[in-house]
Amino acid sequence: MKATTTRPGLDALVTGISAIVARGLDRRHTAYAVADLLRDRLPGLDLLTPAEREGSPDGYASHILHAREEFSILAVVWRPGQDTVIHDHVSWCAFGVISGIEHETLYRDMGDHLVEIGRADNRPGEVSGFAPPGDIHEVRNTSGETGVSLHVYGANVLRLGSSVRRVYDLPVR
Fold first, then answer.
1. Were both Cys, which of 72, 97, 104, 132 would link to 67 (CB 3.0–4.6 Å)?
2. Residue (of 139, 127, 163, 157) closest to 60 by Cα position
3. pLDDT over 80 at 37, yes or no
């Protein structure tokens, strides 16, 4: 898949994120700074084509909108009830919800099991950022509509194939 920057609002995001990354902040502060930028410049649904906004009946769909060595921008489309496995990430991340509700459950790895440490319902317009370690979570679209969110990762997902570092199949206690 070829990444592109010919989508409404994407060029401004790429320019802003590039400037933040060039500052050389640590991972956590980079994630927070990119989240602040997303709060100001979160694109609308027209970022995706109507076909991309439909999602997939087989699971959430990721559309790589821009990728370079320093960061990648993806749009994730979730039909109602679709979710991720419990996982963490290879890099810092910032995300903004454009539509739907992303219910996020956070976990702590205790070695032989996971412990739930928090939950959040991320609604349209809400933005957050995080960085490993401590980024173990699963996400589900709990709304009755197809959800769309924009994710920025501090890694080249075209080269890596995914933003996921590890999938956790430990019991939750």
1. 72
2. 139
3. yes
Alpha-carbon distance of 51 to 170, in angstroms, equals 36
Q: How far apart are CA 94 and CA 131, in angstroms?
A: 9
Tokens linked to 125? 């317009």
Range of the domain at 41: 10-167
Say yes or no to pLDDT of 2 above 50. Answer: no
Bridge partners, residue 109, by sequence: 114
> Per the domain annotation, does 107 fall within a domain?
yes
CA distance 29 to 173: 31
Distance CA 23, CA 168 (A): 33
Phi and psi of 46, rounded to 5°?
-70, -5
In a domain, 173, yes or no: no
What are the tokens at 159?
């080269």
**Count of domains forming the chain:** 1
Residue appearing with tokens 């739930």 = 116
DSSP letter string over 32-60?
A: HHHHHHHHHH---GGGS-HHHHT--TTS-
Q: Assess if residue 1 is contained within a domain.
A: no
- Beta-sheet strands, E only, within 1-113: 61-67, 72-78, 87-89, 93-99, 102-109
6 vs 147, which has greater pLDDT? 147
Distance (Å, rounded) from C-alpha 18 to C-alpha 92?
A: 14
For the question of whether the overall pTM of this predicted structure is more than 0.85, the answer is yes
